[in-house]
Design a protein that fits this description.
This protein is an alpha/beta fold and 482 residues long. The chain is built from 21 helices and 16 strands. The strands form five sheets. It has a five-stranded parallel β-sheet, sandwiched between helices. About 7% of the residues have low confidence.
């Protein structure tokens, strides 16, 4: 049987060489070209079982030819590469029908693995959903490996109605991601409705979610629509879902199971058609162990888990984020500023407990309060001189940061204190090990970009052991666009 033929297009001769060598070592036949016109001629002639192409080529853009490829040969999988590692690149790759999107630089082992998967499952890809071209305005900023994983995961979910739970520290942009899922997804023409569970009195949450009839309770002077009704045909974003009281959780679970709800004081069930996206900065598994969150609701909401990295885990995005916020405040009439290299160095050493929101607030202060066109490192140090700046000092004086043991000790002290005179539920040892294992394995997978062989070697565990841990801990491993 003849080996599969892979067509590779890239204007960089060195990249073409390393890709073709890696693919030939894997047993594939490879043809390479430096322009789109030749690639299209080969495809039109029926050549190739798989295409791997850069987006920006000397004679055109691969995104412009992708629809022609899908119309001419819908069974031909196309993998696109790009150094323009933005959110919109991943979204366009998905909408144009690409099998996968690979940001440059990439791991050759991962590329070969993607090629094998694509050839093993050559299926026609769906065309882009009808609607307007979202354009090049990026709702998310950053090109770090951590954000590339987020972009690829979002691209895979755009044309689905799967329920998503977004986790991450305060200020990481959870609502921004939820809005991106809506604005670039199949429900973009419907409403996006957000509700913050932590900001609503407990006795009014059910009324806020499901609405109420006139006279349903004291003060209900007229009928009021709930957020489910307002979000009909669109997306309902449940922020701070960990703060939802148990009785409201029960009703929400019933809606997710049955696809209908009843307004407070009403009797007739109402069918609902909304996509649910939830978010929290809390550990829902810990809330489950403490009896504060329903486990069955957790699994209904957590169909697709998405963890947003804190800013300290994507610190290489800091210059891009700063430029973005300076541009935004300039649109509001404030003067444009730039950051000196010294300022950037100081900001990179800071731990950013408030994450991207804290950075945005800092940029606004700098633009509004200081006359200098270029912000110096001394000025940044002054602005960050608060209780969190101790983390910056520990970096500059060479002292060691707080170790893991001390952090765990503080965590356990707070955990036991939260129960007052009572003891936590039995099984604490297993729960703590699980909570440590989950972020450890997730971090190893993120660092190796989902490569389980490398992650197992990094962790010093057997690959089968790692696979079992991933399955038992329900860790999401992002690989390819389908």
């Amino acid at each position: 049987m003849a080996p599969a033929q892979i067509l590779v297009a890239d204007d960089d001769a060195a990249i073409r060489t390393v890709i073709s060598q890696a693919l030939m070592r894997a047993g594939f036949e490879v043809r390479v070209t430096a322009n789109i016109a030749t690639l299209w001629r080969w495809i039109s002639a029926g050549e190739g079982d798989l295409v791997i192409t850069d987006v920006l080529m000397p004679d055109g853009n691969a995104f412009d030819v992708l629809p022609k490829i899908k119309n001419s040969r819908p069974d031909l999988p196309v993998v696109v590469m790009s150094a323009q590692n933005t959110f919109m690149t991943a979204i366009k790759a998905s909408e144009k029908g690409a099998y996968d999107y690979i940001p440059k630089p990439f791991d050759l082992t991962e590329l070969v693995a993607i090629a094998r998967r694509a050839l093993a499952e050559p299926k026609p890809q769906p065309n882009a959903a009808p609607g307007e071209d979202p354009g090049d305005n990026m709702p998310l900023v950053g090109r770090s490996p951590a954000m590339q994983d987020i972009y690829r995961a979002l691209a895979r979910m755009m044309q689905t109605d799967l329920t998503v739970t977004i986790t991450g520290e305060s200020g990481t942009g959870k609502e921004l991601v939820a809005r991106a899922l809506h604005d670039y997804g199949r429900r973009r023409k419907g409403p996006f409705v957000a509700i913050n569970m932590a900001a609503i009195p407990r006795d009014l949450i059910e009324s806020e979610l499901f609405g109420h009839e006139k006279g349903a309770f004291t003060g209900a002077q007229s009928r009021s629509s709930g957020r489910f009704e307002q979000a009909e045909g669109g997306t309902l974003f449940l922020d701070e879902i960990g703060d939802m009281p148990m009785e409201a959780q029960t009703r929400l679970l019933r809606v997710l199971q049955q696809g209908e709800y009843t307004v407070v004081g009403g009797r007739t069930p109402i069918a609902t058609d909304v996509r649910i996206v939830s978010a929290t900065n809390k550990d829902l598994r810990q809330l489950i162990s403490r009896g504060l969150f329903r486990e069955d609701l957790f699994y209904r909401l957590n169909v697709v888990p998405l963890r947003l990295p804190p800013l300290r885990e994507r610190i290489e995005d800091l210059p891009d984020l700063a430029r973005h916020f300076f541009t935004e405040v300039q649109k509001e009439g404030l003067p444009r500023k730039t950051l000196s290299q010294g300022a950037l160095d100081v900001m990179r050493r800071y731990t950013w407990p408030g994450n991207v929101r804290e950075l945005e607030n800092l940029i606004r202060r700098l633009s509004a309060l200081y006359p200098q066109d270029e912000i110096s490192g001394e000025l940044i140090e002054h602005e960050l001189s608060n209780e969190y700046a101790r983390a910056l000092d520990s970096e500059t004086d060479g002292s060691r940061p707080v170790d893991l043991s001390a952090s765990v000790e503080r965590y356990l002290s707070d955990y036991f204190s939260s129960f007052g005179d009572q003891l936590p539920p039995p099984g604490l040892h297993g729960r703590i090990l699980r909570e440590v294992e989950y972020p450890l394995i997730a971090a190893a997978l993120a660092a190796t970009r989902g490569n389980q062989v490398k992650a197992a070697d990094l962790l010093g565990v057997n690959r089968n052991t790692l696979r079992k841990k991933i399955r038992d801990l329900d860790i999401s491993v992002v690989r390819s666009l389908r």
